[in-house]
Fold this protein.
Amino acid sequence: MKIEQIYTGCIAHAAYYIENNGEAAIFDPLREVQPYIDRAQKDNAKIKYIFETHFHADFVSGHIDLAKKTAAEIIFGPTAKCGYDCTTAEDNQEYKVGNYTIKVIHTPGHTLESTCYLLTDENGKQHGIITGDTLFIGDVGRPDLAQALVEDLTQDKLAGYLFDSLRNKIMPLSDDLIVYPNHGAGSACGKNMSKETTDTLGNQKKTNYALRADMTKEEFKAELLDGLTPPPAYFPQNVMMNINGYESLDTILKKGDTPLSPKEFEAIANQTEALILDVRNEAEFVKEHIPSSIFIGLHGQFAPWVGALIRDTKQPILLVTPEGLEVETITRLSRVGFDNTLGYLKGGLTAWKSGGFETDTIDSISPEVFASKYENALVVDARKPSEFKAEHVESAVNIPLDYVNEQIAEVPKEDTFFLHCAGGYRSVIMASILKARGYHNMINVEKGMAGIRTTDVPLTAFVCPSTLK
């Protein structure tokens, strides 16, 4: 069977392309749709259907733009209600793409409309199943993202629905089916996803905690809900865009791809209260940046960090980018619903300084210098709690970057402190946020924990009291 996974690592997202006999279908497309159109043209195929597994929370799907450009039909599963032209399929309904058959399998739980698509080849053999956020490799979808959309809907109810969907709809299927999920490791839509992006259903039945045959519904719910962290703030906003519709990406790019002189850039920043977003690498930002700008490097998990740390998708944004990456930056912002880019600084920091404008820096030291100064000093670890528990600098405090907005009161205000993460990316993001809010008492540790481990700084791990003798 001709099926291709189109994986985008920065948001751990998988779209799928299938083609047979001159007809094609796309599953869960990203916002930029031209690559899917180009792929179909390479096969001299017409995109007939756009299948959506659910209303996504972690990205804005490209289904609306793709439908407008190809006249393909948008298909959602049962109970879905769109603010644009789409088809709501029935459970077990079948669609033909060439000689392939796509069967709708309604699997509520992650969301109420969540649907999987069973793929059967031209010989009538069941080949695989596109599972969306119902079933990942090593995990299943979190059941707390759709609560706000339906009155009296709780994560406990959704977890119960997901248990039934998995047991009654997915697990009875053939072990040799290939599972094609919507996300891999790094996505916030689950908590235990594998780095692998496909597997057989049979192996998942053996290895995925959520598919244990002897698990009761209550045990399933307890394990699924344990350790769930709050979803990023942009998730509900993305859901509504996917339900109600959005502006074409072409329009977003036309508005955002606007070069601005330093004077124009500063004027717009003052007039609109735009956030200045610097997407260069952390070393460049540490060395010099526009005062009060926020760093989120394009080379890391850019879009998820933007979504987690910038609260409102309507926030006006001005960009400082490496030359030639302006359109890529605007596109990647749009993937998570940030469509209000007003332009970018033409000529970057070189033009900014030539125009007589000031720059700022972040105090930053090597791991070796940190090793000579850390004793009796305040150390803030910006990594996730799980990383901190596994290993951390003795006496360090954990203020995860994910929750810096909520926990900013815990950041030392007077005394100088050292700030680090795993490799140096997250700590610079956090330092930029703190500087923009008036904190100037932090020193960044380059290379983070990866560098600290090469020194003689003593490290320790959290020990659960229940394990102590």
